[in-house]
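Intended use. Records such as the Lipoprotein entry shown here are meant for training and evaluating sequence-to-structure methods. They are not intended to support clinical decisions.
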Amino acid sequence: MNLKKIVLSVGLVTVVALFSACDKVANSAKNIQSDWVGLDRKIELYSCMTGKLIKVYQGDVRMNPEDAMGTSLLIDGKKLQTNLCFVIAEIGVKEEVLLNN
């Protein structure tokens, strides 16, 4: 009887731990996919001074965080080095409208 309670408790704790880690596992998988093959994304480059849209890129995008000066992006295998302001949106992800209160 006591062994059943221990096994049930361990099983319950394991199930709770697995369900709580699902988001972490999904994020880790997304990071690995992004690092290896890139993700279908849209990059919008803006002037940091005026806020004017300068150029839009779309394709398989990987970020290169090792660069010390600015940001380096690989877009369809071509390197883009920038120190401009940019917005990166993943294609197919629903965007939520932000409301100003």
